[in-house]
Design goal:
There is one protein chain. The chain is mainly α. The chain has a domain at 1-137: Tetratricopeptide repeat domain (Serine Threonine Protein Phosphatase 5, Tetratricopeptide repeat). The chain is 75% helix and 0% strand. It contains 14 helices and no strands. It has helices spanning 24-37, 42-67, 71-84, 89-101, 105-118, 123-135, 139-150, 157-173, 177-190, 195-207, 211-224, 228-244, 248-261, 266-278. α2 runs antiparallel to α3 (71-84), α4 (89-101) packs parallel to α6 and α5 (105-118) runs antiparallel to α6. Residues 1-15 and 23-39 have low confidence and may be disordered.
Length: 279
């Protein structure tokens, strides 16, 4: 899951963030373990099993709501699951993600910290906490959480790539350009098609005046077809470079593409404003 990065020429950039989403399948595995352990103890075990099944049902409904953009109902289902099993780290992490999408950042942080209190080694919660801190521009904290993850030898490749991308962007915003480049390039060594890292490297290249390299990075983002919002941003950023170089027609083409891809989004609106100035 990512947030939009503002264009350097108009506002402080915020960057692309990679979140880890809890899935119904993952939590089902965790809850089914609890169910299995409860089968040997008579009535108390049966009640425990039934409670676990109810919690799982609420969680699965919450996931379905969240995946379909129904954030309020998702929060209610995750809360119901947490009321039954308050010590489940997956549920706390999912609830945090729902609050984040609702714009309730303090609540999101609270539940991620709760998940890590329950299980300090719970990688999805720490990854999301690092990403949340990037989104809140709390860059030193984002880097610290990311470095804890990177020190974990059990971190899978997908988590490693996302963590390096988040850490790299936080380093970039703190002016640690060399460190940011190392982190982002390392992320691409593991997953060359990870568009968030390509986009962040493109931002770094543009800020350093390496415009040809920046355009190449943004074109790779477009080639990955990440979705309307990211494609609108990449087109906008390419257009900015062409405008600075005096290549008006090239810029117009990319601004028009940005508006076409996401007219109601931040980058589509910025592109429309730019087009109005150029026409």
């Amino acid at each position: 899951m990512s947030i939009p990065a503002c264009a350097p020429s108009t506002a402080p950039a915020r960057g692309r963030v990679a979140f880890r989403r809890g899935t119904a399948r993952a939590v089902a595995a965790a809850l089914s373990l609890a169910v299995g352990l409860g089968c040997a103890g008579g009535g108390a075990a049966k009640k425990k099993e039934e409670a676990a099944q109810r919690a799982r049902s609420h969680y699965d409904l919450g996931v379905d709501h969240l995946q379909n953009g129904r954030v309020g109902p998702a929060i209610r289902e995750f809360q119901a699951s947490a009321a039954i099993q308050p010590d489940d780290a997956w549920t706390q992490t999912a609830l945090a993600e729902a609050y984040r999408r609702k714009g309730l950042m303090k609540e999101a942080e609270t539940h991620l910290l709760r998940a890590l209190q329950l299980d300090p080694g719970f990688q999805p919660a720490r990854l999301n906490l690092s990403a949340l801190y990037v989104q809140l521009a709390r860059y030193p904290e984002a880097i610290a959480e990311g470095q804890r993850l990177l020190a974990d030898p059990t971190l899978p490749t997908q988590g490693l790539v996302k963590t390096l991308t988040n850490v790299g962007y936080a380093q970039l915003r703190l002016g640690q350009r060399a460190e940011a480049r190392r982190s982002l390039e390392e992320a691409l060594e593991y997953a060359d098609g990870f568009w968030q890292a390509q986009l962040n490297l493109g931002i770094l290249e543009a800020e350093e005046g390496r415009t040809a390299q920046a355009i190449t990075r943004f074109q790779r983002v477009l080639g990955a077809k990440p979705g309307p919002l990211a494609e609108a941003e990449a087109n906008y950023r390419i257009a900015e470079i062409y405008i600075a170089q005096g290549e008006r027609e090239e810029a117009l083409g990319h601004l028009t593409a940005a508006v076409a891809r996401k007219p109601s989004g931040e980058w589509g609106k910025r592109s429309e404003e730019y087009l109005n100035l150029l026409r």
